[in-house]
Specification:
Layout: E1 9-12, H1 19-36, E2 40-43, H2 62-76, E3 80-83, H3 90-94, E4 99-102, H4 110-117, E5 123-126, H5 136-145, E6 151-155, E7 158-159, E8 165-166, H6 171-179, E9 183-186, E10 192-197, E11 200-203, H7 208-218, E12 222-228, E13 242-243, H8 244-263
Parallel strand pairs: 1-2, 1-12, 2-3, 3-4, 4-5, 5-6, 6-9, 9-12, 12-13
Antiparallel strand pairs: 7-8, 10-11
Helix pairs in contact: 1-2, 4-5, 7-8
């Protein structure tokens, strides 16, 4: 069975950390996948290149990050995903990971999209926070012309004035219709409050379960959730991640919702 043939969860910490943390999360995800039958892809970033402040932690870098991702894959058996920020990173990263991701802020960067597509790996492109859902059709077309494997679009909220995001539940159907692509819902970045944490991104994580349940009911094809055993201690996006201990309950609710939706 190929990746994304059925409902899949992409999950993991925002930025890769020490092996102990990565493996703790990865092993939890592997056990959850085994218990529920839900395919899960481990996500971790080797570089957070779009941090608001110069001094913000950025991650372990590409060389160490790829080693850490390979370690997670070998130890847990999970496929792995990471994002790239520069065209020159695509080939090296594709040699290790199963899925490449294009960050939302870079979703219209043609050279980056084509470089990722040229590896032939499955590609997950996050919708820019300023873009209408139908605008992603041009991005998906670039990727497909560039030779990408299966290309997905992730909805992660749209700017609503200053410092806020909203999720339009119509976007899943709109993206699917205009892009002929599967749609992922990012339930954690969608609760960001850009610039609201002393100039860095804050967030309202208490709304994650509500938005996730709504997106699943509205028909998203897959889910993306950043998760961490102790979000306040995370070097990146600690204000928007779901606690690892809360993940299983939410996944169980999601799978029940999908059963009801498919039965109806």
């Amino acid at each position: 069975m190929s990746l994304f043939d059925r409902f899949t969860l992409i999950a993991g910490p925002c930025a890769l950390e020490a092996s102990s943390l990565n493996l703790r999360v990865g092993e939890h995800l592997a056990e959850l996948s085994e218990r529920t039958g839900l395919p899960i892809i481990f996500k971790g970033s080797f570089d957070k290149a779009n941090r608001s402040k110069l001094g913000s932690p950025r991650g372990p870098g590409i060389e160490e990050g790829l080693r850490l991702l390979e370690e997670v894959r070998q130890e847990t058996g999970l496929p792995v995903l990471t994002d790239i920020h520069e065209p020159g990173q695509a080939v090296a990263v594709a040699g290790v990971v199963d899925v490449l991701q294009i960050p939302a802020f870079l979703s219209r960067q043609t050279d980056l999209v084509l470089a990722a597509a040229g590896t032939g790996r499955p590609l997950n492109v996050k919708k820019g926070q300023w873009m209408a859902p139908e605008e992603m059709s041009a991005v998906v077309d670039k990727a497909r012309q560039g030779g990408a494997g299966p290309t997905l679009v992730t909805e992660r909220g749209t700017f609503f004035g200053y410092g806020n995001l909203v999720v339009d539940m119509r976007s899943f159907r709109t993206i699917r219709r205009h892009c002929d692509a599967q749609v992922v819902f990012d339930g954690t970045h969608s609760v960001q409050r850009p610039g609201k944490d002393d100039g860095s991104s804050g967030g309202d994580p208490e709304y994650i379960p509500d938005l996730v349940r709504g997106a699943v009911a509205a028909g998203c094809d897959h889910l993306f959730l950043e998760t961490h055993p102790d979000p306040p201690s995370a070097p990146s996006d600690g204000t928007t991640m779901l606690r690892l201990e809360a993940l299983d309950k939410l996944v169980d609710e999601v799978l029940t919702l999908r059963e009801v939706r498919e039965a109806g």
